[in-house]
Design brief:
three-stranded antiparallel sheet
């Protein structure tokens, strides 16, 4: 297994408020270490939820990198802590990294394509892993941004409060 350290949903998306509420509940559960509870809140609008989270992650990476002035490195590690290439990562991690990188480079279509391929071809446990990856990265990046007094979406701050 590999891990990685390190939203944009169309403003006219008719279910945006509900999606943000869904993401808020999922983040709150994930923050408390309740993966099953987080996944329960991520069972509808999975594609949109993932895109929302990776969009927010992209914005936070940009903030951490001073809007591109400071390079931010995305690294993938195996279970022993050795850095590996993206292509050697488990499929959900590989999809997550590629989606985040596409978002970071402003290529929303490529990000959506990565998610579409994963949802069409991945086993249910791989989809769950992808959702959890997006939640964990959002939590981690938000923590870094909050600590550095950088902008974080208010709904994410609310989800992580407590």
């Amino acid at each position: 297994m590999t891990s990685c350290w390190i939203g944009l949903v169309d403003a006219d998306f008719s279910g945006r408020d509900e999606l943000v509420e869904q993401a808020t509940r999922a983040l709150a559960e994930a923050r408390q270490g309740h993966d099953d509870g987080a996944l329960l809140h991520a069972t509808t609008n999975v594609r949109e939820l993932i895109m929302l989270l990776f969009g927010e992650c992209s914005a936070m990476v940009s903030a951490l990198g001073n809007g591109g002035a400071t390079p931010v490195k995305v690294q993938v590690f195996d279970d022993e802590g050795t850095e590996v290439s993206i292509d050697q990562a488990d499929p959900p991690v590989r999809t997550a990294v590629r989606t985040l990188l596409a978002q970071m480079h402003g290529n929303r279509e490529d990000a959506q394509q990565q998610i579409e391929i994963a949802l069409a071809n991945a086993a249910p446990d791989e989809v769950a892993s992808l959702v959890l990856q997006a939640l964990r990265w959002t939590i981690r990046l938000a923590g870094e941004c909050i600590e550095r007094e950088l902008t974080v979406a208010p709904w994410i701050v609310a989800a992580l409060a407590d």
